[in-house]
Amino acid sequence: MIRQDANRIDPKRRATIDHKKRQFATPTYKQQDYPHRLNLYDTPPTAEITLEQFEQWAIDRLKVLAEIEACSYRNKSPAETEAHITPLLQKYLPLSSNTASPNGAADPRLKNERQKDHYSHFILRLAFSATEDLRRRFARAETMLFRFRFQKDDSRERRAFIESLNLDWEPVSEDERNQIAEHLVSATPGLRRVDEETWYKVDWEKVAELVERRSVFMRRGKAYVPGREQLSMIMAEFTARLERSLELTSRALPRLDEDDRLTPILNHLSKNFGSAESVYSEAEGHVDGAAITASSIDSLAQHFPLCMRNLHMNLRKNNHLKHFGRLQYTLFLKGIGLSLEECILFWRQSFKGKTDDEFNSQYKYNIRHAYGDVGGDVNRRGRGYPPYSCQKILGDNNVGVGQAHGCPYRHFSVDNLVGLLQGTGVHDKEVLRGVREDVGKQRYHIACNRVFEWSHKTEIKKVKEDGTWSQADLDTIVHPNTYFKRSYLLKSLAKAPPRGEA
Amino acid sequence: MPHSVSADSSHRDEEDLPDAPSGGEKDVAGVKLEDMFDDEDEDFPASNAQDMKMESSPAPSPAGAPTATPAGVDTDVMLAFYQRLFPFRYLFQWLNHGVVPTKDFGNREFALTLQNDAYLRYQSYPTADLFRKDILKMNPSRFEIGPVYSANPRDRKTLRGGQMKPISKELVFDIDMTDYDDIRTCCQKANICHKCWAFVTMAIKVIDSALREDFGFEHILWVYSGRRGAHAWVCDARARSLPDDRRRAIAGYLEILRGGSQSGKRVNIRRPLHPHITRSLDILKNHFAQTTLKDQDTFASGEQVEKLLGLLPDKSLNESLRRKWEASPDRPSTSKWADIDALAKTGKSSTLNTSALRDAKQDIVLEYTYPRLDAEVSKKMIHLLKSPFVIHPGTGRICVPIDPLKAEEFDPLTVPTVMELLGEIDAYDAKHPPAVAPEGGADIEGSVQNDQDTKGARKLQDYEKTSLKPYVDFFRSFIANLLKEERAGKREREETAPAVKADPMEF
Q1: Type and span of the H or E element at A267
Q2: Domain positions in chain A
Q3: Compositional bias (Basic and acidic residues) spans (chain B) (predicted)?
């Protein structure tokens, strides 16, 4: 099992102070001296910092995490991410290794850097432990940051750090290694010589993925892992510990309510992080001047991204959509500015086979719920739920039989996808080839953006030449509603050329 | 109804026991139906226990009148089995991991299949006695065992969503002969014979050794599923608490055959062979020679020959093999298998890659003998699996444990059926007449008697009079080993536990 409790005391050595007395003892905190650059964030900080530091440090870290998330989200390769992140880290969250200073870890500069890293991590934990979604995203971004730093770390320091962690890794003795050398070679893929590696014996549960792929030697419940799998094991350990403590933090969070200095800062922080993912904000998808009514959807559908067009085509073909399809489409329509009344009208007209009674009893409530017209207090105040972002749509990994929601780039087989694209007028061989390639590499955004760029190529060229649209306006699309808005604006610009003074 | 006498009726054995259903039966049936649909069961178990005491006759079947189950195991026989033979006490100890009732048993889900095929989930019982009483009352045709939940499964409706979580269950495996239909020639579907049971035997050996040697599990209970398969229950504490992703990892580790029967070559494994596969091959080699080549004569038909050739890598070798086999259609599989090497040696094929051929032959051995697990059963903690010692309603056979060390000696066709066992009790009682004949009718005296049968140091239990005895004894010793370790583990936990109270303020 994972040695979960670093502070677990050997029963024989356990302090035998009466817990009643202990209650009144002065707390003694572990002094943090940060001997290593990296930190698994096991011990919470205990020293005092100012409120300004509290906020500033958190914001600095948040900037880095938001960028990291944006990189993964735009499918940047590790090298691209590194190039993007390194200057930001240098600016906001520098963390030098011991060799960077002649005094080693004792240098006050290093100490300050590490303190900031440590404190900011724990502040953000407070800010992001409230909901399941925030916890998951925070853990993911932190893990990526940790991985990034771990890989950059000086190899000697890295070893010292790992040793300091006191993980339950038992090195395999040379005798034992020689004894089972043959098994090690045949069990571990990509291995040439057994004595190249340091081997560790760990509980197999820690390396479950290796076990599942049958690429590790197992004996009596222990997995024999080569040193180069260290990274993945440390990462697993880091994520597991972080997730567990976030869970604990969230339970302790209500007690913070009494503190009226920190709570506003924390709430503010978590809101900021929220905008990094769903770029969509209230007015994002709305297009000024476009008359969006139930009857205009058919003509507007040409501006829809493929996922929504697919839903629309299915709706027109079958006069019906299943629940998740309706939900995805309704929220999208809400996002482009279709009012609730028009939306209900749209669905009523679309479901031709249903009587009014059936429609009202089976479907109407869900539409109103999505708009926040009915439902619990939270739903109504939040005006329903936000339109789904690409990430949300892509994340749905079981689109079942007869369902049309999801992202065609991800959930269709390549041949069906190409068929659908051709059905919507994308015939260019080069584009289709690119789409196949992107989808093969699981770069679904890129494929979608490729199609967008192709189908709006003349308009894009024009606005670029005019200089009316900056590069930022043409950034990668990561939200179906952004797709619609951009497409609509580009096409209407082309129709009415002398409008572009903005 | 000679056997349908409550075995726990010893405290009132002087009472005149009616040997026919009593007049109150109709009411009882009504009460029972109500209970069955009453999800809350608030006053359970007190009221039910009362019911049982008030009853002068054992609980009748839910329908009020005996109805026959498919194989003629009628409800009376079923009831008699539960009353006299089913080892409730050991089943309790097994699931409870101790003698004093704990949450391990109390929060464990049972799912009962009633005689009318209704399926009752989320049943749970605080103690072995209450468990027994409810089973006697419901008289299910079979019941399944689910996970231990964080709360009592009966309270699930009073809990808010997400509060009742499964926290532990034995790691289970399911081997079913139907998955072997494409490679067995002797039987199809639900039928089995000695020839095809060999597949289960080798599966037990392979899985058992992998679980013990690779994963270090020690308490593995193999159970005959009653017709054509076997279940494994891995009961080590470490296995019971595995979360689903770790269970999936084990299932993946053990799974070698992938894809359905239409997907062509199903074994695609990396070279060099993983030690688990090497060991499995060593176990399976002889079985392949005996079962696949001799007993099943798998490659006799033209269709199977084509399939075999499809798995061999070299085209020109395949051509010469096909010519040779077409010339002598009656050639047995063993000779055909030998032909592959013989022809390869003659060097007729210039393109032949000997190591590729060796690998292909290994893959074939695995494809035709490696265990075919129903992996879904193992992957989820919440999966329900039929309890040991229940009756298979189709065959009437008892789901008895199999000793993996003597897997080869296990013969599914001689596993006792419930009718045989009841007959054995009668035969025994006839041979060993009780010292003092009671007042009651001759039919029931045996069963009443046996509770006060003080011959020897202790009374003889009904199962000890039958051929079920060795199986129950095996189960008992299995539990004894499990409990021994469990006690040691508990002591250790208690010693260290108080020190590590999670501090909620520690982030």
Answers
A1: helix A262-277
A2: 28-163+236-277, 168-230, 294-499
A3: 24-35, 486-496
Looking at residue B64, its pLDDT comes to: 39
Over residues B184-206, the mean pLDDT reads 86
**Local structure of B223: helix, strand or coil:** strand
* Interface mutation vs chain B, best among A205, A209, A249, most B CBs within 10 Å: A205
Nearest-Cα distance to chain A for B248, in Å, is: 7
pLDDT tier at A28, thresholds 50, 70, 90:
low
Does the annotation flag A343 for ligand binding?
Answer: no
Catalytic residues of B: 109, 174, 176
Nearest to B496 among A11, A214, A220 (CB): A11
**Which chain A positions have a beta carbon within 8 Å of B275's beta carbon?**
183, 186-187, 217-218
Distances (CA, A) of B399 to B86, B133, B472: 11, 21, 11
Residue B187 CA to its chain's centroid (Å): 21
pLDDT at position A400 is 62
Chain B neighbors of A186, CB-CB under 8 A: 272-275, 278
- Average pLDDT estimate for A112-133: 87
Shortest CA gap B405–chain A (Å): 18
Residue B252 tokens, joined: 């993946």
DSSP B44: T
pLDDT at B301: 82
How does DSSP classify residue B292? I
Q: Find the closest chain A residue to B493 by CA distance.
A: A11
CB contact under 8 A, A251 and B504: yes
Structural domains of chain B, with CATH: 1-8+38-168 (3.90.920.10), 169-256+373-416+475-507 (3.90.920.10), 264-369 (no CATH)
Residues of B with CB under 8 A from a CB of A: 213-217, 238, 242, 245-246, 248-250, 252-253, 270, 272-278, 495-496, 499-500, 502, 504-507
Q: Do the annotations mark residue A307 as ligand-binding?
A: yes
User: Which ipTM did the prediction report?
Assistant: 0.73
Question: What residues of B are in contact with residue A19 (Cβ under 8 Å)?
Answer: none
Give the separation between CA B187 and CA B191, rounded to whole angstroms. 6
Which residues of chain A have a CB within 8 Å of the CB of B504? 248, 251-252
Q: Are B463 and B469 in contact (CB under 8 A)?
A: yes
Q: What tokens does B49 get? A: 């226990």
Chain B residue with minimum CA distance to A221 = B215
pLDDT digits over B430-474, tens only?
888 766 544 444 444 444 444 444 444 567 888 888 999 999 999
Q: Are A85 and A148 in contact (CB under 8 A)?
A: yes
d(CA B489, CA A284): 60
Query: What is the CATH topology of the domain spanning A28-163+236-277?
Result: Transcription Elongation Factor S-II; Chain A (1.20.930)
**Six-digit token string for A418:** 């190409």
Contacts 24+ apart (CB under 8 A), B17-23: B17/B56, B17/B57, B17/B440, B17/B444, B17/B448, B18/B56, B18/B57, B19/B441, B19/B443, B19/B444, B21/B57, B21/B60, B22/B56, B22/B57
Cβ-defined contact of B274 to A214 (cutoff 8 Å)? yes
Tens digit of each residue's pLDDT (9 = 90 or more) over B81-98: 999 999 999 999 999 998
CB contact under 8 A, A187 and B275: yes
